[in-house]
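Co-fold these.
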Amino acid sequence: MILASAGNILVWIVWVGAGFACLASGVAVVSFRNPFYSALALIGNLGSLAVLYLLLSAEFVAAAQVLVYAGAVMVMFLFVIAYIGPRMETPWAGGPNWQSIAAVLAAGSIFLEIIVAVALKAGGRLSHSDHVNATFGTPGWIGRLFLTDHLLAFEITSIVLLIAAVGGVILGSHTKRAT
Amino acid sequence: MQGPGIAWYLGISAFLFGTGALGVLLRRNPIIVLLSLEIMLNGGNLALIAFARHAGNGAGQIFALAVMAVAASEVCVGLGLVVAINRRRLALDVDKLSELRG
Amino acid sequence: MRDGAWLCLFAPLAGTIVILLGGTRIPRAVAGWISTASVFVAFGGATWAFFALRASNDRAGITYTAWTWLQSGSFKVGLSVLVDPLSTMMMLIVAGIGGLIVLYSIGYMDGDDEERRYFAYMSLFVFSMLLLVQGGNLLILLAGWGLVGLSSYLLIGFWHDRPSAVAAAKKAFIMNAVGDATMALAFFVLIFHSHSLEFGTSFATAAQLSPTAVNLVALGLLGGAAAKSAQIPLHTWLPDAMEGPTPVSALIHAATMVTAGVYLIARTHPIFEQARTVELVAAGMGALTLLVAGLIALVQTDIKRVIAYSTMSQIGYMFLGAGVGAYASGMFHLMTHAFFKALLFMAAGLVIHALSGEQDIRKMRGIGALMPWTKWAFLVGSLALVGVPPFAGFFSKDAIIAAALHDHWYGVILAGAGLVGAFLTGVYTFRLYFLVFPGEPSAFVREHHHAHHGQEGPLTMLVPVGVLAVLAVIGGWIQFSPFWHPLTNWLAPVAQTLGVAEPTNTQEAIASVLAVLLGLAGIGVAYALYGRGEASLAVPRLPAVQRTLEHKLYFDEAYDALFYRPAAAFASWLRRDFEEPVILATGPDLGEGALELGQGASRLQTGLLRTYVLFLGTGLAIVGVVFLVVR
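Predicted complex below.
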């Protein structure tokens, strides 16, 4: 699997770095007590994910990830966190005793199951990826797909965004009170 | 394809998904819960992109974009809820928010 | 012939149904007349069948099937009646004597609150007994057998507010059930080999069975016969059965039901002839019973119990006769015994009725002076019982003893037992007579005796007694072997007397003379001991023997220790150590367990959103495992 070429080694190094950052920031998000720090960790997570997407020949998705997710969604998060103020909260306290243990167990088992499922196929169908041409993942290619094969998804997604925007405005607005 | 095989990316995706699930189940602050939910969604996105690359099929990337849009919408509505709860002077604790009043 | 048989069978059943349906709408006396009429109609039917059979060519008998209710391949069984010499003889006896006794009951049970129930049961009994004797296949025979046991139970326990009567009824039923079980097992073995329930086919296969099998079958049949006829060892229920009304004792426990065992042996004699040893065991059992019962009867103080032990003893004679192969003699003695035993019971019933229910013979001294007609009837019955010529018992009993005499050395022993039994019969019978009837009336009698409108009893009671007295005299004249034996000839097609059991003239003479002499000697001894008032000899005092006899040879105590106590101990052990800890505790435990389960489950409802999401996640994990494994 590991070819003796400089390009390949570079890809591996980048992958290890991005992967590690991704995993560490993911753990950080759920561990910090201060929500502000968690949000910052999430930004880091999104960045490393974008690098991974680039490695997977998904340039447009990587760009969209940085622009939309990290740029817009996270900014919104930070605004709200700033608005609400500091709320410290300890992760493990509260709730019935068995809740915490059961949560770890459930999450751990889900993780393990996926690993097992993947590992079973790792030597078989997952070992050889198809060869893709240079246009794979480019914005033009995505755009063409959006407007031809997946037009319905495109339209419905835009409707969902519209509804969400309207909902957000309504939820966030002040209720009119009679003085 | 250069670099690690698809299986490794899927491993990362699995870890992200599990960690996000742990956060959702464990944390009490609704903002942190929403952040953990984002982690889960990103894990799913990574899996989608990986499979798209593996099969040479663009549908995975399209779907990942759609997921991103939906995640954005959901965060929008969720944060609106958080703001509204905060304005009502209720505790920002999912355990205490078991009976909505107002 | 066929119509006569059906009429005979179903008339008493119709009587029962009419009384049941009538309920309290019909007056009590009318119920009695309905029952009596139904049984006399049955007698008419029996007579009709008898004469038709006599006139027909088919002397071996015909089986009529009303309808077939079970048919599978070549296996058929239905409601069939058999009209042959043996069954017509039994039909006449059962219906005739039954009719007389039911007539007697009208007077005896007059005034009882539950008369209608009584007469319904009596008709039911007559129907069951007729079903038994007329049964054309093993199934009907068994059905009749069981119904007879049921009727006996119902009638013994008729006065159900008396605990002793209820206990006696249970005892009778249970002992009969033991016999029924052995008999049913015997039938199963027979049916298994012959695949048919018809008499002829089943008996024919008996010749092909292995010796073990045929011996088992014969033993099973003997067990059933012994239980029904109260022979040792299944005899202890008969004395207790005297708790029932006197007509019941007369009909069931003297004339008909207890003779069913003898009928069974005669009917199934082909099987017994294949298992000759068992047949001889039957004869030995009969001999033993007749001796033991005779001895016990010497010390009884209840008038009905003396007569009950006498019944047991006389049936021993019948078993003896049938066991050695003299079926006709056994059946002949059955018939004469029915006459004089029913007579004795009914005469005793007249005394009991006149003394308002008193049954202790020590108090009844001298009642003959106040009831002369009863005294004469009782005397006739007693003489017939002892076997004094020309009364009925002489002809039948001596034939049995003679038949036994002919049968090897074993038969000589049996005949000897029979002769000793004749002596004992004389003693106990006339002990009873001399203690009760002759002499000056005692104070008790004078106080308690009440006549029925100047007569000794109502007419419905006196007429049957008179009829039976006449029969007790002339009933034996139908056969005086070896000179004149129409009865043996009549029964020959179905119950041929075995060659070994046909005595020579010399043996007949010896047997008769000895039996009569011993009987008269017994009467003499009884007279000396009891008959002369203050001038009597003192009864020899043997305290140990007396005690043993009074305790009926400790059979009841033995059965109590052997069967009842272990069963009762086992039952209470089960209740204490199994039912209470295990079964009764399981109920509350189950309830508490369910409560705890519910409480545990309610703790899962925390009310927190996080918990419900956790359940989602857990479910996802489990589904994932399932897919991984099953895929």
